[in-house]
Write a structure and sequence with these properties.
The chain is built from ten helices and 17 strands. It is α/β, with parallel strands linked by helices. It has two domains: about 30-120 and about 275-340, D-Maltodextrin-Binding Protein, domain 2, CATH 3.40.190; about 120-270, Periplasmic binding protein-like II (D-Maltodextrin-Binding Protein, domain 2, 3-Layer(aba) Sandwich), CATH 3.40.190.10. It has a seven-stranded mixed sheet. It has a six-stranded mixed sheet with strand order 2-1-3-14-4-17, sandwiched between helices. Strands 6-7 form a two-stranded antiparallel ribbon. α2 crosses α8 (about 285-295) and α3 crosses α4. The radius of gyration is 20 Å and the shape is globular.
Amino acid sequence: MKKFLAGILLMMMMAVILAGCAAKGGADSKSIIMVWYPNESGEDLKGAREAIGKVVEKATGKKVEHKLTTDYVIAIEALATGNAHIAFLGAQGYIEAHKKNPKVLPLVVNSGKSGTLADAQYYSWLCVKRGEETQYKNGEAFSIDNIQGKRFSFVSSSSTSGFKVPAAGIVSYFSKKENWKNLKQEHLTEGGKDKFFSEVLFGGSHQGSAVNLLTGKADVAAFCDTCVANYVELAEGTANKPGAVYRVKKDAAEPFDKVPGAEFVVISSTPVLNAPFAANTEKVSEKDIKALLALLTSDEVAKNQEIFVPKGSSFKGLFVAGERFVEVKDEWFNPIRELSK
């Protein structure tokens, strides 16, 4: 508990320091600052960040400055306070930024294969190391009954698929049992003898949570499919289904470079609303917002192979060919808001 509180305090101090700095620029600024979560701040994704940045520069005529982070809270606070103008946030991060500042609004999310919002989703996984999956089965089906008492890794308390969705699922499942009928999401953030988990870790990123599992620091870990897609490959089973086995690629970049060939098994998979690009509309003008929406949702961007990367390409991107950006409104994220009630 002390370690968790100390971590929260440190993040709050960093966020306060960031928020305390004078907000840079305004709607008439000649530059746009984009802030990125730790998941997308790695050197291997520099090309992907720059590809998005070029689209923003073309739409607005303004130079883009990329700000990388090591914690979700820093990125959320930067967008809410105006120290950053545009961010690629998870749904939960967007909701937190919007709550802090209602002028933070979503622009677009990536679609599914339909090219619409109908299948604009990815997956939140609960995974275990290969060889340990049988203890998480009830008959032929996978079950989360035995995750209680284990060492568990989340991503960040502000992560949609790395905390909010899996925590809500765990509480919903176990609160039906007499021993855990009063279980709340906040009870999952600390481990201990009389706690739900024996130990709780936060990886800081989806990649970090996965590595916590693969290096033996955690027995079970929550992370999403899209954030590890550049580092792992499906070895057995059906993608995004319980029982699917994924293997770390031999040439995987950091932080997976220390565990090439390691395998994990998905024991639970839950669909999650796709993550938005969001803007602080106090800092980005209405004219620029309109230009951004027009270009981001265009066929030109949908065909950009450094943004929507074709299968088999060696380019490390964030989205896959066949998808496209579609405009989204604040209320689209209400199902994620409901998870906190």
